[in-house]
Amino acid sequence: MPHTMRAVLVKWLFIVYLLGSGTLWSTVMLLLYPFISRSARYRLAALWCRALVAVMRGAFGIRCTIEGLEHLPHEPSIILCRHESTWETLAFLALFPRRISFVFKQDLLSIPFFGWVLKGLDMVSLDRGSPRQAHVAVTREAAGRLAKGDMVVIFPEGTRVPHDAPVKLTSGGVRLACATGALIVPVVHNAGKVWPAKGWPTGAGHIRVVVGPTLSPVERSPQELSHQVHDWMQAELHKL
């Protein structure tokens, strides 16, 4: 079979698996949601994500590794992560040993099955209205998740970007850390090389996730924190 035809076939097989298994598993979770706890709902979602990671590796040749887990603090913290594809929103629940809560666009809640499950996972939704009102609302919700022991994941560039794009951070994640006093954990990866920002996986590959040393908002200005996160991310991306 020609390489191009095989790549197209693999892509469509992956799409069918992702949507089919996601719909089936979402249905199971939604039926169970009224009877199980918040932590049990998360474990169910993480179980599907681990199965997805295993299928990506075994059937499609997409391997992934995570480095630097020793940097994760014991206390709740804020992960500022590069956003390159859909991959990280699916795989992070499988890779991180602690419960994580994504900050996501409120529009996603209206997606059938996926959005309904997302709502039940009690993460942080963002209504992109007035910047001030959005910041106040996200700070309140994120503080609540941190109080429950979650690690809050924010994509500080605001949208998906190609892997080779320069790092351009918005101030929201750093301001949230300063407002809550939570430690910042910078994270980068190279998922965009395998699963583009716009599209589906292009074939086999190795996705590396790198977790950086924590940064404390104590005795640091938001500008200083932002510069430190930016410089670390930019330097590590050059290595991936």
Give the overall shape. Answer: globular
Kindly report the average pLDDT value: 89
CATH topology: Glycerol-3-phosphate (1)-acyltransferase
Strand content: 15-25%
Look at the helices and sheets and give the structural class.
Answer: alpha/beta
Q: Give start-end ranges of low-pLDDT stretches.
A: none
Q: What is the number of helical segments per DSSP (H or I, 4+ residues)? A: 7
**Proportion in helices:** 40-55%
Order of helices and strands: HHEEHEHEHEHEEH
Taking all Cα atoms into account, the compactness measure Rg is 18 Å
The total number of structural domains is: 1
CATH top level?
A: Alpha Beta
Distance N to C terminus:
31 Å
Major β-sheet strand ordering? 1-7-6-2-5-3-4
Strand segment tally? 7
CATH architecture descriptor text: 3-Layer(aba) Sandwich
Largest sheet: 7 strands, mixed
Organism: Paraburkholderia phymatum (strain DSM 17167 / CIP 108236 / LMG 21445 / STM815) (Burkholderia phymatum)
Transmembrane segments: 12-33
Domain Phospholipid/glycerol acyltransferase: 77-192
Protein name: Phospholipid/glycerol acyltransferase
3D architecture notes:
The protein is an alpha/beta fold and 240 residues long. It has one domain (3-239): 3-Layer(aba) Sandwich (Glycerol-3-phosphate (1)-acyltransferase). Helices cover 47% and strands 16% of the residues. It contains 7 helices and 7 strands; from the N terminus they run ααββαβαβαβαββα. It has helices at residues 3-32, 38-60, 87-95, 114-120, 131-147, 172-180, 222-239, and strands spanning 62-67, 77-81, 100-105, 124-126, 151-154, 183-189, 205-211. The chain has a 7-stranded mixed β-sheet, sandwiched between helices. Helix 4 links the parallel strand 3 (100-105) and strand 4 (124-126). The protein starts with a helix and ends with a helix.
